[in-house]
Amino acid sequence: MTESLSHFGPWTTADLAGLPDDGQRYEIIDGSLIVTPGPAPLHQLVAGRISVFLRESAPDAADVIEASNLQLSTGRLLIPDVVVAESAAIFARSVALEPADVYLVVEVVSPSNAAMDRIFKPQLYATAGIQWMWRVELGADSVEIVVLDLRSGSPVVHARSSDVLQVDVPFSVEIPVARLLASRAALWGDHSAADLEG
Prior knowledge:
Blueprint: E1 25-29, E2 32-36, H1 41-57, E3 62-66, E4 70-73, E5 76-78, E6 82-86, H2 87-91, E7 102-108, H3 114-128, E8 132-138, E9 143-149, E10 156-161, E11 165-167, E12 173-175, H4 184-188, H5 193-197
Parallel strand pairs: 7-8
Antiparallel strand pairs: 1-2, 1-5, 3-6, 4-5, 6-7, 8-9, 9-10, 11-12
């Protein structure tokens, strides 16, 4: 692995193709490579459940994907936990999405990456022109979603909930935040996850 990470000069998106597929996340900020451990199972469960609700509510021209490359600028590539983006951009088979394609990014705060998720990424997304971000905070037995309005170029809290999140921007969606850590049967009630995903 040391040999794979040998590199001279600023990192670029093209350089990532030579890195090992080892479960770690490789992001680039101003030409520097940022390596973080793969997400924990609970992190992925919450991100996946949020994706299902977003998929049900997203505009017809949009789709929802998890852990995809997002090229903010020449020297900046991030991997949000969830992205709602134009379907056409997703099907274009490019290496990364671009900010103009994105309706919303979601970051589930990881203990190993908390400052990045809470402070740096919101500002980087705002600077790149992405208008909306959800920051998901995992407590010992609870979840809180904080909706950040990035349109001014700086993050501003638009809404937050640890019960039921209802927002109309960038599209209307309702998420039972308080039940995101519940058993699958309790979360979906009369609907199976397959019904919601289909």
